[in-house]
Specification:
Length: 315
C-alpha cells in the first residue's frame, strides 16, 4: 500500500510542472499589457515602460520563468498587480464560497447520481430505467450557464425562495445562512455531474449482477433484495469512487461559470477578473493552486479505490 501511495504521489509531480510551464507562457501570449492596464489610457509610453521595468516584464521570458519557479519553490508566489496584496491572501478570502459550492454540489451529485443509478439498474429495461437514462442524458447536455439562469429566474426572482445573487460568509450569517446563498449555484453545478455518476453506477451494477457469485447467491435462496443491496451494491460502488473524485476536481472549474452567473465572490470569479486584468501572479497562483487540489483529490480517490479493492495496481 505504501509503495502504491508513493508511486501515485510521484506521478502527480509532472502534471504540476507541466501546468506551471503552460500557464506561465500562455498568460504572456494573451494580448494585453498589465502595466498599461494598471496605469490606464492616460499614461504615457515612458510611464508604462518604467512600470514594466519595475515589474520585471522587460526581462527575457526565460529569466522571468526562472524567477517565477524560484518564487514558487521558496513559497513566495508573488503579489497581485491589482491590489498589491499577496496572492494567497486574495485566494484565502475567496476560498470559502468556492469550497462550499464544491462540497454542496458533490453531495447533490453523489446522492442523486448513485440513487438514480441503483434504481435504473434495479429496474433494468423498464420504463423507469429508460426515463432515468433519458433524464441523465438531458442533464448532461444542458449548458450550466443556461440552467443557472433558469433556476435563478424561477426560484430567485419568481418564487423568491433563495437570494438572487451575492454571498454572505459563515461568520456573518452562519453555515445554513451561507448555504442558502449557494443552493442555486450548487444545484446548477451538481446536476451537471449527476448524469455521469448515474450512468456509471448503472453500468457497474449491471456488470456486477452478471458475475458468478451473484448467481451463486441466488442459487442459495437469498432474497433479491439481499443479493442486490448487500452483495452487488458493495462491489459496484468501489469503481464509482474514482468517478466521484474526477467530478469533485472538475467542479472547481465549473464554479467559475456558477460564480459569474450568481455573482458569488469566490475563486472562480477572482480567476475571471484576474484574467481580464492580466494579473499574471494572481492568475498563475489560482490555476496552480487548483491544479494541486485536482492532483491531491485524485490521489486520495485512488488510495480509497486501492483500499476498497486491494487488487488494483498502478500501471
Amino acid at each position: 500500500m505504501l509503495q502504491f501511495i508513493v508511486k501515485r504521489v510521484l506521478s502527480g509531480i509532472p502534471v504540476i510542472l507541466i501546468v506551471m510551464v503552460l500557464i506561465f507562457f500562455i498568460m504572456r501570449i494573451i494580448p494585453g499589457d498589465p502595466a498599461a492596464m494598471i496605469l490606464g489610457d492616460e499614461a504615457s509610453i515612458e510611464e508604462i515602460e518604467d512600470l514594466r521595468e519595475k515589474m520585471g516584464l522587460n526581462d527575457p521570458l526565460p529569466v522571468q520563468f526562472i524567477n517565477y519557479v524560484k518564487d514558487i519553490v521558496s513559497g513566495n508566489w508573488g503579489n497581485s498587480y491589482h491590489n498589491g496584496r499577496p496572492v494567497f491572501e486574495n485566494i484565502r478570502k475567496r476560498l470559502e464560497p468556492t469550497i462550499l459550492i464544491v462540497v454542496y454540489s458533490t453531495v447533490i451529485s453523489v446522492v442523486l447520481g448513485i440513487t438514480l443509478g441503483i434504481l435504473s439498474a434495479r429496474f433494468h429495461n423498464s420504463f423507469l430505467d429508460y426515463t432515468l437514462t433519458t433524464v441523465s442524458v438531458f442533464g448532461l447536455s444542458v449548458p450550466m450557464f443556461w440552467f443557472g439562469v433558469m433556476i435563478l429566474f424561477l426560484f430567485g426572482v419568481r418564487l423568491r425562495w433563495f437570494p438572487v445573487q451575492g454571498y454572505r460568509t459563515i461568520a456573518e450569517v452562519g453555515l445554513l445562512g451561507s448555504l442558502k446563498y449557494l443552493t442555486m449555484p450548487s444545484v446548477a453545478v451538481g446536476l451537471q455531474h449527476v448524469a455521469s455518476i448515474t450512468r456509471y453506477t448503472r453500468s457497474m451494477m449491471l456488470e456486477v449482477l452478471g458475475n458468478n457469485y451473484i448467481r451463486t447467491a441466488h442459487a442459495k435462496g437469498l432474497s433479491e433484495r439481499v443479493v442486490f443491496y448487500k452483495h452487488a451494491l458493495k462491489n459496484a460502488l468501489s469503481p464509482v469512487v474514482t468517478t466521484i473524485g474526477f467530478s469533485m476536481a472538475s467542479m472547481l472549474g465549473g464554479t467559475v461559470v456558477a460564480e459569474m452567473v450568481f455573482n458569488i465572490p469566490g475563486m472562480g470569479k477572482l480567476a475571471y477578473d484576474s484574467l481580464i486584468r492580466r494579473d499574471y501572479p494572481q492568475e498563475q497562483a489560482i490555476i496552480l493552486f487548483m491544479t494541486i487540489v485536482f492532483v491531491v483529490v485524485n490521489i486520495v480517490m485512488d488510495i480509497m479505490y486501492k483500499w476498497l479493492d486491494p487488487r488494483i495496481e498502478l500501471d
